[in-house]
């Protein structure tokens, strides 16, 4: 884990040049997370001259580079005929540093301090939320918050929230819910992340998507929480429980790394594996055998399940939680997020079968539980259950071929339906050394794993995986070592029958 340094700043104790310098520093992680925000507008947010108290916690690497921040602004106003404190909150962290900064403890400390300073006052927290991830996080620790999926927002509270949106310069969005405002910035999501959030069953995320369908256009929800004394205590309690849970998960993870306490009842493991798409239509006895060698692993949020470039020693089936697939970009660049996966997803089966290094880093976004199957045990189960081996190899081969089809100019013109039809009709062959495989006139040869020699009328050629060629009629494939190949029909129209 990276060593992080936190510093707390008070803009009211700084001159304008110092605040601008701070804004430029913290704008880097902000811009990593949000689009459509100019540094001058970010400076205006940090300075907030009409607050009674502002504190900004910056999070830095040892070299001084900022990776995130949390800001809280306190305003003393009136609501329901009483003096109240409104706390405006915002934060942004580079993805790999989320959950590692002590952000929750900082917020809890600031809220408790002001609560003690104004014991008889009402206190409300507000935030303009532009992504379901933020809404989900805040809903975990904010008691009595609105809008939510369980109850209607009281009319007077809604009017108060709208007045705050106007005060902070966020206009209404025509045709949208009244608490949806034009905040002007958007979260930087990959296409895969957007797909994942659109299909998740999490109630907070589902509510956010239905209430604010225009988040990709710069629309956000103003979220308000009643920070009563009991509510603040409850929130701090939830945070403490969350923190203890993270420490417990870390301890369990370390024990599991030593091989302690990882076994899962076979029936339980088989049932969990049956929910995974990779094992659709696999015989129960094969799942039972796989369940016998599965081990439970727990990964706290922010930790790596696998790291790019490492040997593929095991595969993981995600049982609970969310993970993010990242491609490392170099020491000075943030990783590129290419996918986000939830329960039922499998991680690492291609590397295990192909005996290759990990092609990407996979990191837990939330506390994540997996079933881990060691490479040796997995291959032994495949040897004993040919139907399972056929299913897994077909999925891996189709995925590898699809990557080739999408990246090759010769096949980019294939329609989606035609490409999927080709992938569904692969004819896989596992070749031992010395095997000769005849190829038909309509066949192209896709080498999934290993090296083969192909003899045709044009002569001999050596082909290393992954590659595809069309040697022509009366050609033969010769295995000089164990290999896996797939015959692919070039006459795609013939496949449609």
Annotation keywords:
497 residues, alpha+beta, Aminopeptidase, Jelly Rolls, 3 domains, 8-stranded mixed beta sheet, 15 helices, elongated
Please give the structural blueprint.
Blueprint: E1 5-9, H1 16-33, E2 34-35, H2 39-47, E3 53-60, E4 66-79, E5 82-93, H3 103-117, E6 122-129, H4 132-141, E7 145-146, H5 155-167, E8 180-182, E9 186-187, H6 191-199, H7 203-211, E10 219-226, H8 229-257, H9 266-274, H10 284-292, E11 295-299, E12 304-306, E13 314-320, E14 323-327, E15 336-341, E16 346-347, H11 349-354, E17 361-364, E18 368-374, H12 375-384, H13 386-407, H14 416-424, E19 427-431, E20 436-439, E21 443-449, E22 451-456, E23 459-464, E24 467-469, E25 475-479, E26 483-489, H15 492-495
Parallel strand pairs: 5-6
Antiparallel strand pairs: 1-3, 2-9, 3-4, 4-5, 6-10, 7-10, 8-10, 11-18, 12-17, 13-16, 13-18, 14-15, 14-17, 19-26, 20-25, 21-24, 21-26, 22-23, 22-25
Helix pairs in contact: 1-2, 3-8, 4-7, 9-10, 12-13, 13-14
Architecture overview:
By secondary structure, this protein is of the alpha+beta class. The protein folds into 3 domains: 241 residues, 3-Layer(aba) Sandwich (Aminopeptidase), CATH 3.40.630; 117 residues, Sandwich (Jelly Rolls); 89 residues, Jelly Rolls. Helices cover 36% and strands 29% of the residues. The chain is built from 15 helices and 26 strands. The strands form 6 sheets. Strands 1, 3, 4, 5, 6, 7, 8 and 10 form an 8-stranded mixed beta sheet that branches. A hairpin with a 5-residue loop joins strand 3 and strand 4. Helix 1 packs across helix 2. The longest helix has 29 residues. 36% of the residues are buried.
């Amino acid at each position: 884990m990276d060593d992080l340094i936190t510093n707390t700043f008070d803009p009211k104790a700084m001159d304008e040049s110092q605040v601008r310098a701070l804004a430029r520093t913290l704008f880097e992680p902000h811009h990593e997370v949000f689009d459509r925000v100019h540094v001058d507008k970010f400076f205006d947010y940090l300075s907030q001259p009409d607050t009674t108290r502002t504190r900004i916690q910056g999070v830095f690497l040892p070299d001084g580079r900022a990776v995130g921040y949390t800001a809280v602004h306190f305003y003393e106003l009136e609501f329901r005929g009483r003096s109240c404190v409104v706390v405006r909150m915002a934060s942004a962290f580079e993805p790999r540093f989320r959950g590692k900064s002590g952000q929750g403890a900082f917020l809890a400390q600031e809220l408790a301090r002001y609560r003690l300073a104004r014991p008889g006052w009402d206190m409300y927290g507000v935030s303009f939320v532009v992504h379901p991830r933020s809404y989900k996080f805040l809903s975990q620790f904010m008691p009595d918050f609105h809008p939510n999926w369980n109850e209607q927002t009281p009319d007077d509270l809604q009017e108060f929230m709208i007045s705050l949106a106007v005060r902070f310069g966020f206009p209404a969005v025509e045709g949208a819910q009244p608490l949806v405002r034009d905040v002007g910035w958007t979260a930087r999501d990959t296409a895969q992340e957007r797909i994942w959030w659109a299909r998740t069953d999490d109630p907070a995320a589902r509510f956010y998507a239905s209430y604010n369908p225009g988040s990709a256009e710069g629309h956000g929800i103003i979220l308000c929480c009643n920070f009563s004394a009991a509510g603040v205590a409850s929130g701090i309690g939830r945070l403490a429980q969350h923190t203890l849970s993270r420490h417990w998960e870390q301890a369990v993870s370390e024990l599991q790394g030593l091989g302690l306490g990882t076994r899962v009842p076979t029936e339980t493991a088989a049932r969990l594996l049956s929910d995974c798409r990779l094992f659709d239509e696999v015989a129960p006895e094969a799942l039972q055998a796989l369940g016998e060698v599965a081990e439970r692993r727990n990964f706290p949020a922010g930790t790596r399940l696998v790291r790019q470039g490492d040997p593929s020693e095991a595969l993981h089936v995600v049982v609970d939680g969310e993970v993010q697939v990242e491609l490392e970009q170099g020491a000075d660049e943030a990783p590129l997020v290419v996918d986000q996966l939830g329960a039922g997803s499998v991680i690492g089966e291609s590397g295990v079968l192909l005996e290759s290094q990990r092609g990407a880093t996979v990191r837990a976004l939330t506390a994540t539980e997996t079933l881990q199957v060691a490479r040796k045990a997995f291959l032994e189960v495949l040897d004993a259950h040919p139907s399972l081996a056929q299913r897994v190899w077909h999925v891996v081969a189709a995925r590898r071929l699809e990557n080739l089809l999408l990246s090759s100019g010769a096949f980019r013109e294939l329609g989606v339906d035609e490409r999927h039809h080709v992938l569904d009709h692969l004819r896989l062959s596992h070749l031992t050394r010395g095997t000769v495989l005849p190829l038909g006139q309509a066949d192209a040869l896709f080498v999934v794993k290993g090296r083969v020699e192909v003899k045709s009328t044009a002569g001999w050629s050596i082909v290393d995986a992954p590659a595809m060629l069309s040697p022509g009629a009366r050609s033969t494939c010769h295995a000089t070592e164990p290999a896996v190949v797939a015959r692919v029909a070039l006459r795609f129209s013939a496949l449609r029958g």
